[in-house]
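your task:
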Amino acid sequence: MPAILYILIVLLMLLNFRLLGSSRIAACIQTVAAQAVLFGATAVAINWPHLHWQIGLIVILSVVIKAVLLPWLLRRAVRESGASREIEPLVGFNLSLLLGVALLGLCLLVASSLPVPGDTSNGLLLPAALFTAVTGLFLIICRKKAVTQVLGYLTMENGINAFGMAFAVNETLLVAMAVLLDVLVAVLVMGIAIYHISREFDHIDTDKLSALKE
């Protein structure tokens, strides 16, 4: 099972780089959905062979919401807004990839100084969780499209969820349910906001909203 964990963790890190380097919003939505599936598989692998039904339930619920429902809502918002690409990000995509390498190194350094319960495979999950959360924060700050910023929020939530998997020993179900409820409500609110922005303006670039005047 540790070998499977290593593969899943490497794939998660590669998906983060795809988010940093892709300008196509549809591809980013697919990436975040794949990320949710991989995190679900990681949760199952960590708890195998003593997988409790509660963990299985929250994994299924999380994957359905974050890999099926929320991507469907975001694709609908993209169709309504007519935005297909992140054209002028605050930080270019090539530079984003280089910064991603630096952030990954920083996350590995920080994770090496934190005590992690469990075996070494759980310890490898910690830098991946930190890198995923930082990647989400980077997308929120350095991308202009509202949809991409929502994807950054989802990515950051995936990282927080993985961070909980690496550290949580008791009451993991309650923690996961609380985080999942928060992200569901937040994305629904953001989807409504994107819809109204696209109806009132011919773009969904959030930085241009600061230029609005009465």
Q: What stands out?
A: Helices lie at 2-21, 25-47, 53-81, 93-112, 120-142, 146-167, 172-200. The CA atoms of residues 157 and 182 lie 9 Å apart.
